[in-house]
Design a protein that fits this description.
By secondary structure, the protein is α/β, with parallel strands linked by helices. The chain has twelve helices and eleven strands. The chain has two domains: 153 residues, Aspartate/ornithine carbamoyltransferase (Rossmann fold); 150 residues, 3-Layer(aba) Sandwich (Rossmann fold). Helix 1 crosses helix 12 and helix 2 packs across helix 12. The termini are close together. The structure holds N-(3-carboxypropanoyl)-L-norvaline.
Length: 315
């Protein structure tokens, strides 16, 4: 694998999920693969799981790790071509990415949607600039539209927990007062659409995800209908795509409660974390044995370890 930016970089999703499970069973089996290789992790936004799980995976593969927070620790970067740089941004991505590529064998980048322009966010200006100018493989640590490390961990978790060969998987919108990115939901839909799971997306009107992610998934505005017979409830808030970046609803009726979980086929509860207790989901659900959120977060190590292994094998 050359890069791990989006699903187009992956030749076989099923095989990558199996690789993740294999890494989990044999965490140190490829300890020499990354020897004398350096990964640089560049964060434009906050992180807990992504930061530590990627470091852990890189260490398991024998790599050295360098972490940088852009903004607080470095120059502000310009991404537009042909501008006169007479404002706050001191360095252009053309130089910054190329220089980082001189120091690192692989670069991981986290850059959330900025919500200033749908077009800029959806053309993935930050990640694609790194791909263009760094000259080394790029790993997406959550970009404006996608979070593949999360989605791969999600599929690994579903494979571990499923009790039916073709589980019913439900992606449900939950309320939040802030405008959150669509990346996790987009990416989850994109990856689940590669499986043969029965896949349903439910959200209030106005929250349809971009069509290229929804594809042929069933969409319903009735959460109750979606939950019937579900094996997995994947909760996530996202802001509107059509009224880009806006919070159109904070309806508390969309919160996940034990009563709603009772409508399902004894479903596992999933969330990428961080989760705001009480706002999106009741404590009783998160604290119940049905909650898979810690196992899911644990699987973040094996998902990125599988992706890094594939990249290292081709370096
Ligand atoms: C991010 C998101 O994409 O929704 C990261 C998820 C992995 N989540 C948040 O920004 C949550 C912020 C909050 O205040 O709850």
């Amino acid at each position: 694998m050359k890069h791990f930016i989006n699903l187009n970089d992956v030749s076989d999703v099923k095989e990558l999920v199996l690789e993740g499970l294999h890494q989990k069973a044999n965490p140190l089996a490829n300890q020499n693969l990354g020897k004398n290789k350096t990964i640089g992790l560049i964060f434009f936004n906050s992180s807990l799981r992504t930061r530590i799980s990627t470091q852990k995976a890189a260490i398991n593969l024998g790599m050295d790790v360098i972490v940088m927070n852009v903004g607080s620790d470095s120059w502000q970067l310009e991404f537009e071509d042909g501008v006169i740089m007479d404002q706050g941004k001191a360095e252009h991505i053309k130089e910054a990415a190329a220089v980082l590529g001189q120091y690192c064998d692989i670069i991981g980048v986290r850059a959330f949607a900025e919500f200033k322009s749908q077009e800029d966010d959806y053309r993935e200006i930050v990640l694609e600039s790194f791909r263009k100018y760094a000259g080394v493989p790029i790993v997406n640590l959550e970009s404006a539209t996608r979070h593949p490390c999360q989605s791969l961990a999600d599929l690994i978790t579903i494979e571990e927990l499923k009790t039916r060969t073709r589980p019913k998987v439900v992606l449900t919108w939950v309320p939040h007062f802030k405008a959150l990115p669509q990346a996790v939901a987009n990416s989850f839909a994109e990856w689940v659409n590669e499986t043969d799971y029965d896949f349903v997306i439910t959200h209030p009107e106005g929250y349809d995800l971009a069509p290229q992610f929804v594809k042929n998934a069933k969409v319903t505005y009735s959460q109750e209908e979606a939950f019937a017979d579900a094996d997995f409830i994947y909760a996530k808030n996202w802001s509107s795509y059509s009224q880009y970046g806006q919070v159109l609803s904070q309806d508390p009726d969309w919160r996940i409660t034990p009563e709603k979980m009772a409508l399902t086929h004894n479903a596992n509860f999933m969330h990428c974390l961080p989760v705001r207790r009480g706002l999106k989901v009741a404590d009783e659900v998160l604290d119940s044995p049905q909650s898979a959120v810690i196992q899911q977060a644990g699987n973040r190590v094996w998902s990125v370890q599988a992706a890094l292994k594939k990249i290292l094998e081709e370096l």
